[in-house]
Amino acid sequence: MSDPETPAKSGQPIAAHLAVLVAIALAAAYVVNLVAVVMLPPRPPDVMRGDKVLEAFTAGYAIARTGRTPPTGDGAKWTIQKQKPRVAGAPRAGRIIVHDLARRLETTPQKVVVAFDATPTDVVVFRVRSEEFRVEHEKRRADGEKVREMHLRARASREGESRVRREVIISENGDVTLRAPNAPRPPHAGVEAPMPPQPPNAVTEQPVRIAPRPPEPPEPPEPPRFAPPPPGVVLMSGFLVAAEMADGRWLVMRQQSNAETLDWIMRAALGIGATLVILLLLALLFARRLAAPIQRFAEAARRVGIDVGEAPVKEEGPRELRTAARAVNAMQGRLRSLVAERTEMLAAVAHDLRTPLMRLRLAAENADPALRDKLAKETGEIDAMVSSFIAFARDDPTREARVKLDLAALLQSAVDDRTEAGQDVTYEGPDRLVVMGQAVGLKRLVENLIDNALKYGRVARVAMRQDGADVCIDVTDEGPGIPREEREKVFRPFVRGEGATGAGAGLGLAAAREIARAHGGDVEIRDGQPRGALVRVTLPV
Amino acid sequence: MTEEILAPPDVPHVLIVDDDADIRQGLVEVFHRAGFKASSAPDAAAMDKALEADGADLVVLDLMMPGEDGLSAARRLATRGWPPVIMLSALGDDADRIVGLEVGADDYLSKPCNPRELVARARAVLRRAKDTDSRRGATEAARFAGFRFDFARRELVDPDGVLVSLSTGEFRLLRAFMERPQRVLSRDQLLDLAFSNESDVFDRAVDVQVSRLRKKLERPETGELIRTVRGEGYLFTAKPTPA
Fold it and tell me: What mean pLDDT do residues A363-391 have?
């Protein structure tokens, strides 16, 4: 894998990052598959010749009889148990094999159990160690139908001895008979073979030798070679062979071919799974590596959007992101100078407007009390207009930080301040209601609405209630109300309600709505009951 | 330039710093009429000279002046610890007020103000300055019983981190209590300290404010923070620590 720090530092385009990701992912997938194939053992053969299985069992049985443990291995598992093994359903050729096994063990068929899944022969090639003769008979039954039979002649196992000891006859329907090679007739098919010779029966048979006579036994014996299975030999997989021993216990030999297959599947699945996990981890890693600078960029850009005084966005990550960060920083610089200019301009305006007002106010101190109060009232009204204009021009409702605040205490404080000044303001609602919001902004919103109500409707009734996920603040007055068609208009800056007199720049409702919307809420005007205007603020909690 | 109006030596001396000559003259007259000794200076440099020469018990400082601005001058005075400062500014926003109080001004008024209110505030600042040993501590924040009280921002943050707004009366009352913790304060004292500029506030109003403030401070875990001392007044039970 490449140095993980490289992509972030070099500022490659996103396409390059993706290309590296794809390349590494593919390489990783191939490596894992390769490792899996190399490390996996070949699948063990799980199809066996029935006669060999029986042979192996006979040998094991002989060992077990002497009290020793039978050999393990060869994909077979040996156990000794008290119960006769239970087998559901017997395969077609079971009976023959059972009889064969009983004969081998010199016991009765009732005392042996053979169960297996027959396997088709056409795909299996056997490795044989000794030569065998395959003899096919064609015999004619009494009804004249030709029946094919196969003779399997096994050669003596002892080296150098070429005498054929026994002949196994397996008929088409699977019955097996045995006879000595020189016996004149096989017994009737389907009957457990007693010792030959057998009395001839009704079936005439014409043994036909198909397989060539084997060559003289080689000295030393031929090396193992491969051959198709002898016809008629049952092929087994997943077999179970059992026989009762002298002490009543059962010797069981079983092969679980499925386990081997499952194991192999498990390993393959493990390989694929590991590849997937690695791919996922890599994808995740790269996604995070790609996403992290983008997220930081987004966060920094958001902060700059809220407050242009924030530190500039760090120029890092892919090339595209660096370009974007540079653009944002340039924009931030321009915004900052704009904000600074605006702040300076507003301060100058405030200074230039308020200094004469203060002069006027001081000059009025020397006038007689009636004139003084009149002048004080006028300067106060002009000052209120200047204040609302400056506040509106200066305040960016999205700028102030949000804190946990008690909205009920905020409302009560605003109401109490006005009550103490002798005005008719009441509050009704919970004693405590905590929301996230801008302390100064919400205070201005509430004070604007209360002061509006007092100005146009003499009283202000403030009521708050929680309404599901929203908080509803109603400010009701006892004035003439606001006609339906003007209710949207009055929210526009510098628009004042019909019949508005006295001071006011027409900014109170505009500012209130701007603040409420910055909180995800709104301000709307309704009819008061029984009269007057009802201004409703909804804020999400 | 120092315009001085002679007054008995034990009356407080107010230095007015403003770049507008009419305002300067008007304020000097207002303070003089109120029984103060008053002088004035047109900028921060002249203010330094006047303080050097005559000293002052209180400075009324304009914010926007040519040369060094009022904020910077107020900060310097606050570092020295004397004299107390009332900012008088054409910028009257909450934000401006907070900045002014945070650099160390003792009070903040926006132009145009009622001249009599300015005098009342001046009296209150002088009283508080005399009354509390650590005058500068009053402009910062303090903690008590899990609450945090920021004098400059007028912010009370409760033990759960929730900002609890206070009305002007409640703010002044709490400030008075916190400057004199664990002392019995009579209704008259509280009227003096917390409601100095409103002449029509009576004893009953103090009780109303106290009960409102109590309600806002009431938490099951803090116990009684403002105790009523029968026949005497009220006692703030917590001990504030500088935050």
Answer: 82
Whether the predicted interface score ipTM is above 0.90:
no
**In which region does residue B154 sit, left (phi positive, over 0), alpha (psi from -120 to 50) or beta (all else)?**
left
Most B CBs within 10 Å, among A374, A379, A413, to test the B interface: A413
Q: Are residues A177 and A189 in contact, defined by beta-carbon separation less than 8 angstroms?
A: yes
In this structure, are residues A244 and A112 in contact, taking their beta carbons and an 8 Å threshold?
Answer: yes
Confidence category of residue A450, pLDDT binned at 50, 70, 90? very high
- Which amino acid type is present at position B97? R
The phi, psi pair for B5, rounded to 5°, reads -115, 125
Q: What is the pLDDT of residue A396?
A: 64
- Which stretch of A34-38, A400-404, A469-473 has the lowest confidence by average pLDDT? A34-38
Q: Look over chain A and give the mean of its residue pLDDT values, rounded to a whole number.
A: 72
* Bond preceding residue B83 cis, omega within 30 of 0: yes
pLDDT at A254 (0 to 100):
75
Order of strands, sheet of A424-428, starting from the edge strand that comes earlier in the sequence: A424-428, A459-467, A470-476, A533-540, A522-527
Nearest-by-CA chain B residue for A439: B163
CA distance B185 to B191: 10
Give A27's contacts (C-beta < 8 A, 6+ positions apart): none
Residues in contact with A273: Cβ distance below 8 Å, sequence separation at least 6, in sequence order: none
Q: At what angle do helices A94-105 and A50-65 cross, to 10 degrees?
A: 30
CA gap A248, A408 in Å, rounded: 91
Both tokens assigned to A31? 């490596």
Average pLDDT for B92-103: 79
Distance CA A539, CA A449 (A): 15
- Checking if the pLDDT of A10 tops 80, the result is no
Residue pLDDT, tens place only, A176-196: 555 555 544 444 433 333 334
Say whether B162 and A359 touch across the interface (CB within 8 A).
no
Specify the range with the lowest mean pLDDT, choosing from A13-17, A136-140, A443-447: A136-140
Q: How open is the CA angle A491-A397-A357, to the nearest 5 degrees?
A: 75
CA distances from B62 to A350, A360, A435, A528, B51 (A): 13, 17, 37, 45, 16
**How far from A459 is each of A201, A497, B169, CA to CA, in Å?**
129, 17, 21
Q: Could B22 and A362 be called an inter-chain contact, meaning their C-beta atoms sit closer than 8 Å?
A: yes
CB A439 within 8 Å of CB A510: no
Two tokens, residue A98: 């059972």
Supply the pTM of this predicted model. 0.52
Instruction: Give residue for tokens 């036909």.
Output: A208
Question: CB-based contacts of A522: which residues, under 8 Å, 6+ apart?
Answer: A513, A516, A537, A538
**Statement: residue A464 has pLDDT above 90:** yes
| Inter-residue contact B88 to B118 (CB < 8 Å) | yes
Average the pLDDT over A388-397 and give the result: 71
- Cβ distance A347 to B167 less than 8 Å, yes or no, reads no
Q: At residue B12, what is the residue type?
A: P
Mean pLDDT of A378-405: 77
Instruction: Please tell me which of the candidates A359, A413, A443 has its beta carbon nearest to residue B23.
Output: A359
